[in-house]
TrEMBL record:
Protein name, per record: 7TM receptor with intracellular metal dependent phosphohydrolase
Record field: transmembrane: 20-37, 267-287, 296-316, 322-340, 368-390, 402-420, 432-455
Highest taxon of the lineage: Bacteria
PROSITE patterns given in the database record: HD (PS51831)
NCBIfam families associated with the record: HDIG
Record InterPro entries: HD/PDEase_dom, HD_domain, HDIG_dom, Metal-dep_PHydrolase_7TM_extra, Metal-dep_PHydrolase_7TM_intra, PgpH_phosphodiesterase
Transmembrane helix in keyword set: yes
Short name of any one Pfam family annotated for the protein: HD
Tagged with keyword Transmembrane: yes
Source organism of the structure: Geobacillus thermoleovorans CCB_US3_UF5
Annotated keywords: Membrane, Receptor, Transmembrane, Transmembrane helix
Domain HD: 488-629
Amino acid sequence: MGRFRFFLERTKTVRFVRFWLFLLLAVLLFAVLYWQVKPRQYELRLFDVAKETIRSPVTVEDKEATAKLKEEAAAKVADVYTLKKEYAENRVDLLSSLFAAIESVQREAEPDRPLGDMIAKLEERLPPEWLAYLSAAEWQRLLAASPEELKTAKEAALTAVHAVMSERISQAELDTARAEAAKELEYAALSPPLREAVAKLCRQAVIPNVVYDRAATEEKRRQAMDEVKPVKILQGQVIVEEGQFITNDVYRRLELVGLLESGRPSWTAAGLLVFVLLLLAPLIYYFRTETTNEKLSLYTAIFALMMTTMALIRLLPSSGAVSIGYLVPAAFGPMLVRILLGERLAMMTTIIGAVCGSLLFNEEIGTAGAVSVSLIVYFLAGGLAGTFCLPKELAKANIWRAGVFVAAVNIVSLFSLLLLKNGRYSPTEIGLLVLMAAASGVFSAILTIGLLPVLEAAFGILSPLRLIELSNPNHPLLRKLLTEAPGTYHHSIMVANLAEAACEAIGADGLLARVACYYHDIGKTKRPRYFIENQIGGNPHDHLSPQLSKNIIIAHVADGVALLRKHRLPKEIIDIAEQHHGTTLLKYFYHKAREQTEFVLEAEFRYPGPKPQTKEAAVINIADSVEAAVRSLSNPSQEKIEKIVRSIIADRLQDNQLNECDITLKELELVARSLCETLNGVFHSRIEYPEVRKEKVKHA
């Protein structure tokens, strides 16, 4: 119950610290990016003179200008008039009725009746407005015409009016249409006075036959307005040039794009906050299974260094088309993460750094709040090149080679982007860009090499590069082991070979296992002659009591740990040196003591431990015993080797030596196979050569 409560409290602490670390990352990202995406505002008034050229930071629609253009387009649309064909029929019917009235008056009139009486009779049958079409004299001419003349006049008038009114006649075209109707009568077989009266009657009969169509007119105006494209102020568009007056229109557009200090709240901060949370979401998911915060703390430090470097370079001035962003050593952050925390996290760092860098150094359109696709591609190419170019066996020379490779990839990606843009750059600008791309790769290597030992010391991280350095035979402790305990040195090398292969077989850290094996028996240098691999001649234990011999043998663990701590070796190596025997029993001296007296406690002849806590420590625990046991065989064979390996593993399991590490039975089977393969390669059978007799050669 107590252990469970401790676990819960520890978990709460881990989550609490993790929350603050992520909060620190979020604040750092927000602070670095805010000054780039923050909308710039100007304190300007009408009719001021612009002190600099001002561009739009966003693309927005100028609704007022769009509405004005739509009004102008609608005003240009002419009114729509519809042709009424029935008007022609109506006017033809009117003339027919008029001539019919004249004919009826003529038929009813008595012979030699005065025309005045006939006109009076006609007035009774025609509306007053019709009578106004002609004068009294003209009506008399019509009434005085013979039936044949009247029939001819009627047909000519109806034909003329119908022909003219079949076409569109507007109010403006009325006079022309009436003249055309009168002209149609020129070839009629009528006397001139009668033709003149009929022509006047036709002119009166012709009226406009088109009417205003309000619905059609509004529809055409709506279509004209819809065809007007919205007026937009484009991102990067110049609103006012330096030295120009701030007119009403300019002031309105400045206010529209948010460049005037209006006191209104800005949503940029909220947008940036969401953006930062989206960037951190993959990291939160990645670190969700971590039980400690050491890795997250280290990652936070590396990311802070990367963003700080970008922010400092952002302060440098840019020149024309050459962005200072191409100088950013974007690969050093991913390279450090790759070395210290792994490849997968390094790829995530590359992507996040590329997005942040492109936002921070965006200068292609002279505005903030947008990302540069060119810089994203550039940063991604360099970061991924640095991540994948680092080999498994790290060394400073390899980091330098990775930096050169990053520089080459930067230059290639830069040229590809310049060609895609189809831009025109001067030789000076191209040379400067290439120089910055090369410097970016070199600076990445310099920062990686320089910061690596600082981070290792600050966070107690054991990197592959540090392990490579510790494996150097010229290290003082390894030189001491070689000169003072050569047998132990050889034993450590053999155990290292066995442990490295076995660890790699189960996915553990083979390099850590190898280097830890070099130092695991360093405590034997204090009394080298008391360990069998260093003995030449007699064995000093033959003259000591089992208890004293046991104390000397067991002491090499504590002596080694003290020596390793004195030389400030990494904690991982010290832990393995302390755990490589676990709490195993010194069987030889225990049984020897039992032969001398029956009252011997087994616990007194066991190593103090602790038991192996990691897979690497467990593998070294097994490999150490296996190497010593196989070396003691006079004629090792594959069967004997396999039997010893499996018996030692079984003994460790029965003795509960592997209970405190997370190694599985399946992995132990892989360890056994790996140890057998390696030992069979070392102790393989050899051909026995016949003895060559030496004969004296006589010279003539």
